[in-house]
Each structure stands twice: as C-alpha cells, then as structure tokens.
Amino acid sequence: MFGKPRLPASRLRRIISVGERGIFGWFGLASVLLLLPGDAQLAEPPPAHWAFQPILSPVPPSVLQADWPRNTIDRFLLARMEASGLRPAPDAAPQNWLRRVTFDLTGLPPDEGEAARFLSNPSTEAREKVVDKLLTSPAFGERWARHWLDLVGYADQLGTVNDVPAPYAWRYRDYVVQALNSDKPFDRFVHEQIAGDLMPLRDARERQEAIIATGFLLLGEIHIVTGDKAQLKADIVDHQIQKIGASFLGQSLGCVRCHDHKFDPIRLEDYYGMAGIFNSTESSFMTDRGVWSSILVSELPEPPEDRLRREESLARHLAQVEKIRSERAALSAELSRVKTALSQASTNAPTASTSAEKNGKPRQAELEKQLGQLQTRLHHLAFIAPKASVAYAVRESSEPADGPIHQRGNPRTPGRVVPRGFIRVVQTDPPPAIPPHASGRLELAQWLTQPRHPLTSRVLANRLWKQMMGEGLVRSVDYFGTRGDPPVHPGLLDYLAQSLIHGNWSQKRILREIALSRTYAQASSHDPGKHQADPDNRLWSRMPSRRLDAESLRDAILAVTGRLLPAPGGPALALHLLENVGGLDPKDPNPISFRTSIFPEQQHRLRTIYLPVVRSRAQPGPAELRNFFDFVPPTEMTGQRPSTSVATQALFLLNSGFMKTHAGHLAEWALGPEGLPDRERMTRLYQRVLQRAPEQDEIHRAERFLAEPPPEATHPQRAAWTELCHALLCSNEFLFKL
C-alpha cells in the first residue's frame, strides 16, 4: 500500500528515537512503524555503549609543557588542552586555593591561624600538609556525608504524610559520617549498606555499624499509609532498585518496572531479577494503627558499657514516671472527692447546689484538665523511655524465592517467574551465584564491587571529581546511560576508577590527588579567548568559581562569627520535648507525629548536617537557609544539586533575622578588644571572613561607611560595624569559592 521505504533500518531507528522524545509523539511514532521494511531488526542490541565497556588502564599521555603537571591528573588534562590549542590558567592566589580546598574538603572556612601559617609559605609541601590535615579532620566526614545523603533521600521523617518521625534515622547519618572519616573502603561501604546483616563480623561494634548501614535501603520517600500491602511492597522494592541504580550504577531503573528501558539495554528480566532479591528481604510491617505501616527496626548488639549507661538512664526515667503517677493518684483522689461533694450537695439540698456548683464545677474542670495533661506526659515518657538501641534495618525473608514479572508494573497481574540476578548487559567476572536459601543481597553487593565491574568505580570516581571540580567528567553524574553525556576525558575517568580499585577503594586517596593537582590550583579568572574556544570549560583550562552550597554557607557564617559548636551526632528531632510530639494516645488511629515547635538553643549553633530534615514541607527553624540555596528535597535522590541565582537568595541575605543576628555577633567580636584602632579591627575582620588583609581602597571605603552610622541607631558605632559585617557576609568573595 505504502511501498517499500528506502530509509535504512538504522535511520528509521533514529527517527523513532526522536519521535519518542516528543517531535512526532505517539501517533507519529506509530506512523513510522507502519513504514518499516520487513527485514528491519529494531530489537537488535544497540552499539556497545562506553559505560558498559571494561575499565582500561590508560597510559598517561606525554605533554609539551612538561614542567606544568604536578601529578598524573594534570598530564591527562594538559594533553587535551595542548591538542586544542589552549593553555592552563595561571595558578590561583594562595588564599583562594586555601579557601577553596578547605571548603571543598570540610565545608568550613580556614581559621585565621591556619591561613596565616600557609600564606607565609605557600609551598608544595605546605599544600600537602594542609590537605592531609583537612582529610583527617572530623569536619571532613560531616561535609562529605551530606553528598551521600543527597543520594539516599535521607530525612528524619517517614514518608511525606502526617509528619511521622523517623526517630532512629540519625544513626544512619552518623554511620556515614564515621565511615567517611575512617576512610572505610568503598567496597566495604557498599557491602554494609546492602547486606550488612549478612556479613561475617568480628565484634559487637562492627555488627552495630553493619546493621545500621542497611538503613540505606529504607530511608527514602517510602509511602507508609495504604491498605494495599502488595502495592506497598512493590513500591518499596522499586524504591530500593532505583536507589541502587542511581547511587552505584549511574542508571535510571524506575521505568523498567513496567517495560524494557526505552534507550538502554536493560530489560524487564533484569529489573525483576533484582526485584526478586528485595522481595526476599523484609523491609516493612503493618502497625496496629489503622492502615499504617512502618519500616523495620532491628535491635543493635549492646556492648556492656552501653547497657550500663542505659540502665542508669532507665532508673532515672522510672523515678520520673513514678513521680507523675503519684501526682496523678493525688489528683484523681481529689477529683473523686469533688465529684462526691457535688453529688451530695445536689441530692441533699437542691436549693444549695447552685452555690456548691459555683465552687466545685470549676475545680472539677481544672482537675480533669490536669489529669489529662499528666496522662499525656505519661504517654510521652513511655514513647521516649530508654530502650535497647535500635536502628532502621532490613532482614532476610524466611522464604526467599524468585518472583514474577509484574505486567505493566502492577503486582496484581503477575507474569512469568524470572530468576534472581543482576543487570545482564554489565559484563563482569562470572557473577556470584545466589543460593536458593538466600535473598541475594550479599551477592548483589559483591557483584557491584567486582574489580571488572565497569560502572561502580567509574560512577564513584566521577562523583568525587564533580564535588571537587564543580562538574563531572561525565556531566550527567547520575546517569551513565545512552542518553547521558559521554566522558570528555575517558582516559582520566578510567585512570581514577582504576586508582580506586587498586588503592583499596580509598576515597580520601583520590580526593588528595585531585586537591594537590595543578588543575585544581588554577585561577578561576575569565579569559575571553578560552571562553570562546571552550565555553563550557570541558577541557578544564580554568577552575570554575562556585557558590557555597546551603550547608557550607550556614556553617561558614557560624564559624566566622564564633558561634559554631562541635557535635557528636545524635538525634535531630527534639522528640524529648513534649511540645514536639503529637498523636501520643494509643487509641489514635494515626501514628505518632512530630512537630518543630521548639528547637533546643544548642541546635541553632550546630553544623547543618545535624539539623532535622523533613519531607512534607520547607526545612524548619535553624535550617531555613536550606530553602533558599538549592538544598535537594529529600523526596529526590541525586548527586547533582542545581545552582541557581534568584532574587529570594539576595532578599534572604539582606533581610533575614539569621543574617542580621550573626552580623551582630561578628560585630561584637570585631569590637571586642578595647582601644584597638579601627584599621586594625578591619584587618582582623577581613582576615577572619575572607582570609586576607583588606586593600587600601577597601579600608578607605569602610572608614567612610563607618563614619555614617544609621541615624536611628541607639548605639551608632555598634550599628555601623554590624552593617559592615553584614555587607562582608553578603559579598561574593564570601559566598563563592574563587
């Protein structure tokens, strides 16, 4: 009817791909399908994609400017620059490099003493000492844990409905901080998070860590309110598969729940092979409150010293409970007497009952109110009673088994059963065999970290590069599929991936190499010629200037104003305060809920990673800065935050109570030493905030500014210095890593 089309099958496949992306739409796609020749093999495997190919061991290229590279990273990048006719940017000013590397590795600014020591001798050896000190600082884990928590979708809340708290989520957050600070090998990190409960472990502490680590599979946007428990189970499994795909594989696996991947060689059988693993894993249970479910908790091994502390705390707690019960008994007895008196007055002398009621009824109401409050306090004490330590964790199903394909993703329409397994296009050593009696989680973790696995080490190396350099070598950092960006420097990516594997999967080792490279030390100054030749800076002939993210900005303000407190970790939600807990009555059909009515004073001074993260609304209280500076909503899982410049950010910096309060704290510090000349105060202030001395024109401008304090100010000098400090905290030099 239409005649035989002359387009080759490969061209038709390209048209179909474009059609699926929106130019033709489905009707246009159907039209093209009608034109296909009978011998067009649309189901043939696509050409081998770079991400699925074995990791190579590239030889670092030779370069012409042989005195420029400081390490192997520089040789890879300089060779590409020279081939493109570009030259590297000059080295950044020492104070800019120091500020850049300190923020990148710890999320905090360098203090004045560190800056003065380094700037007096910014040699290569001094840079090595700086980087080594930063990598061993406790602040390193607090900084880099946040990158991982973005991938996990971490929050201190279960789901998004009814503000249900996740009171034990903090244990996973603290586990990540500690794992990064100890430079836990990444392959071990993977094994613990997927199958920590199944690993051979040496002692109670190791077992604690490994059980807590499996919270990775549970802490995310999991909907816990539904009467359809089969659907709930399928949704949880889907969440777990998507998290594995995004965080370790750089693959989007969610759509494979319903059909073969439209663009990547990942099939339904691959998805449901992994689904069988997680269907053979217990993750949730149904509560005794209506249709609500919750995620599993496991009791942690308790070392003797922990048990002793808990028993001491429990004794104090029970004494408090007994005191309230005694108060309740006394009030109940009084209420009984009041009710009896009212009843007798009404029975014996009806005409006098009005007088008795006038005095007795209000007292009865007051006693009933007080008894209700005491009962609520008792419910709250039962909720916060010291118990054996628990953590959100998965466990093996009692009957692990292969599972069926869900047709169109619907668990109510099962299809053929597929064996548990992994993504088949990813060729490794012979994949671990899954025993019939096991879920396969341990084998999945082992498969992910096999030395010949082409994705896990590449994805991690790219993430480390992205967080240090602003962009990934593969710019689509969460997606290594066929519609993602190819690596601009594939040799460098494979070099870093191989270095991870052969370097015991040490993340700190790779970060150290990046931080000490000449590439990382380049200036970020704009060069029109380079911008024209390489507008996206894909060849890394300069360093990009990057704004501080939300956590670094808030933490830096606390640090330079002297308000930042160290924290050992621990709960983020202040559930020990009755005002922050609702739904305590066991008869309530809904689960216990949390509020953020009161924040302990200390929380206003802690690093941002230790503040509560909620899913159902904007970030509350001392964490409000997150709402303006591109914090990733914990309903998402991503390794690439956006970086925006919008009016609300400027308005927050200029007008928020947070900024004004901390500008006042900084001014108080600047004015602290009595009798100090203003110029010396300015020097101290600039060194503290910007890690450099002010220039002469900056001093003159500041002197003119201080000479004109706000006319309405009660304390003119203090007001003028507060506004000067506010201006410095809002300056681009403070907000950006140059």
Structure explained in plain terms:
The chain has 738 residues and is mainly alpha-helical. It contains 26 helices and 14 strands. Among the domains are: 44 residues, no CATH class; 172 residues, no CATH class; 84 residues; 85 residues. Helix 4 packs parallel to helix 6. The protein starts with 8 loop residues before the first helix and ends with a strand.
Element layout with pairings:
Blueprint: H1 9-20, H2 25-34, H3 72-83, H4 94-106, H5 112-119, H6 124-135, H7 138-152, E1 157-158, E2 164-165, H8 169-181, H9 186-195, H10 204-213, H11 229-249, H12 268-279, E3 281-282, E4 284-286, E5 293-295, E6 297-299, H13 304-348, H14 353-383, E7 390-392, E8 395-396, E9 403-406, E10 414-418, H15 441-448, H16 456-469, H17 490-502, H18 507-515, H19 528-533, E11 546-547, H20 550-560, E12 581-582, E13 593-594, H21 647-655, H22 657-670, H23 678-690, H24 696-706, H25 716-729, H26 732-735, E14 736-737
Antiparallel strand pairs: 1-2, 3-8, 4-5, 6-7, 9-10, 11-14, 12-13
Brief write-up:
With 738 residues, this protein is mainly alpha-helical. The protein contains 26 helices and 14 strands.
Distance between the amino and carboxyl termini: 65 Å
Largest sheet: 2 strands, antiparallel
Strand content: 5-15%
Provide the structure class. Answer: mainly alpha
Major sheet: arrangement of strands: 1-2
Count of DSSP H/I helices: 26
Mean pLDDT: 90
**Envelope shape:** flat
- Give the C-alpha Rg: 31 Å
